[in-house]
Amino acid sequence: MQDWFDLAKKMDSLVLEAAATAGLEDTFTADIRTADPRFGDLQANGALPYAKRNKANPRQIGQSIVDLLEKNEDLTSKVEITLSGPGFINFKFKADFLQDWLKTFSGSEQLKKAAAHLQENETVVVDYSSPNTAKQMHIGHLRSLIIGESICKLLAFCGAKVIRDNHIGDWGTAYGRLFYAYKRFLDEENLEANPLGELERLYKLGSKLATEDEEVVKESREELVKLQSEDPEAMALWEQVNGHSIDGIKRVYELFDISFDHYLGESFYRNMVEQVYKELEESGLGEESEGAWVVFHPEHKRYATQPFMYRKSDGASNYATTDLATMLYRAEHFKASSIIIETDFRQKDHFEQLELTTQKWFEKTGRTFPKFSHVFHGTIMGENGKAMASRTGEPVLLKDLIAESIERAEKIVREKNDEKIAKGQAALAEEEIVAAAKVIGTSSIRYAELSQNRTSDYVFAWDKLLSFEGNTAPYLLYAATRIKSIFRNFEAADLENLADKASNIETDEELALARKILGFVGVLQQTVETLRPHLLCTYLFELAGAYSSFYNANKVIVPEADIQSRRLMLCQRTLDVLETGLGLLGIPTLERM
Ligand code: ARG
């Protein structure tokens, strides 16, 4: 089987072999990656860094390797080899190779098999969304949820065992005031209808009353003390409140079809903090500073003087303590080989310090430190250039955001449907309109999120994200339905075994599309390595573009059976990759829209 990864691996060893034959030292690395499409499909970039280290001419080094590779007939039958820039070695797949690949890689399962070794044997705990309890989910909660979920899907597709862990903030000081109000002013009906809304109302009410009345402050504090000392009655109430809170959070997740394996929030780790104190002190990492316990990192330019505080001067634990315990639990209990936490960029310092501290702590205690990534994101801006808010100045609630998106999508679908009717084309049935609006509405929000480089801020603009043109969900969904509509002209039997009936691809557009289709696995690799889903989005947008150029220039339905078969095969493979890729972004395709 012609496997892209096998080929990439083979390139790697062939380039290394050639480098050795050419007399280069073994510090030379091939550094195979996806190439700039103007030059080829794969590229070996190792000559430049090697030349820099050895004060040599990169072009000469590249040429010496190319000369040797050219002698390998097995290789030259598959690829054209060229040299560009400062010694980049480019490999461009020949038409036969592309054709073979298209024949072999049909369907999502095949693609999955090709990708499955990327994360083989990895167990990854992904901590995302992780909101604080008793608060409604709003636009500020969107990015972590959507990006985190896509990362989970990507990793699982690439063979990892993925554990979705929601590290909810469920053990804060807010509970005193919340309990005070909950006991006195609970509106049962509202709790049933909108749990998070009611809890948030009660918390705000408790806080307001506390500013007006000393007695409320006192009673709230007593509630909190009882909870922190794990008084059974307080714990029962806490469990009740928490249950309602998770219930409310899940209702929002359902709108996006997302569910978690675990809800191990901050409270779960409260009894592990003693172990953290003890181990950090005994290992000599922790030290007392002004009554608090901290870890300094002398090798770091900021954390040498700005320590990581894990025990406050009043003796209480904090966010750092529970996170240290969390790292330990994920490493030991889940046997995580990798831990990913997705939050906004403001927590960067916290997680950098957490990583440094845990690394040293594990090293001193003979534990293996898993790979750790803090995947962070920027802010969603409104069209006025400020952080996005609703008319009242409050952050927009996620459930309202989705409802609005679906409503807007429905309007667009109806308009398009009316156009179809006016042109005498087959119209959508009422249920189809409603179903399409739901998919387009939620997918547009998802895609707007995922298509942006996560580390940048982005402007949330309805017209843009719901547009049928440009790098948007509606554009890609529409591209998929267009391909499906071609297949509707055929009987199922006509669409089977196309590869056997197909002649070789040959037009420029066919070749360009085939190349793009084949690029999927490489893009997947890059996306998973960098944990940046926008790379996959950009690719899918380009794939749809390559398909469009192909479709506009090459008739699919033609009298020559072999040509028709190969073009239908290209349509099928495009759809496979498009559906697989969109699926990894959490976007299902539609039959019609
Ligand atoms: N609850 C936190 C917040 O709302 C995010 C938690 C992220 N995960 C963690 N292990 N600290 O900002």
Automatic annotation (TrEMBL):
It is found in: Cytoplasm. Residues 476-593 form the DALR anticodon binding domain. GO terms for cellular component: cytoplasm. The keyword rRNA-binding does not apply. The keyword Acyltransferase does not apply. CDD domains: Anticodon_Ia_Arg. Keywords: Aminoacyl-tRNA synthetase, ATP-binding, Cytoplasm, Ligase, Nucleotide-binding, Protein biosynthesis. This is Arginine--tRNA ligase. Belongs to the class-I aminoacyl-tRNA synthetase family. GO terms for biological process: arginyl-tRNA aminoacylation. Its main location: cytoplasm. A motif ('HIGH' region) lies at residues 131-141. It catalyses: tRNA(Arg) + L-arginine + ATP = L-arginyl-tRNA(Arg) + AMP + diphosphate. One of its GO terms (molecular function) is ATP binding. NCBIfam families: argS (TIGR00456). It comes from Pelagicoccus mobilis. Monomer. Pfam families: Arg_tRNA_synt_N, DALR_1, tRNA-synt_1d. Its EC number is 6.1.1.19. Residues 9-93 form the Arginyl tRNA synthetase N-terminal domain. It comes from the Bacteria. It is an enzyme of class 6 (ligase).
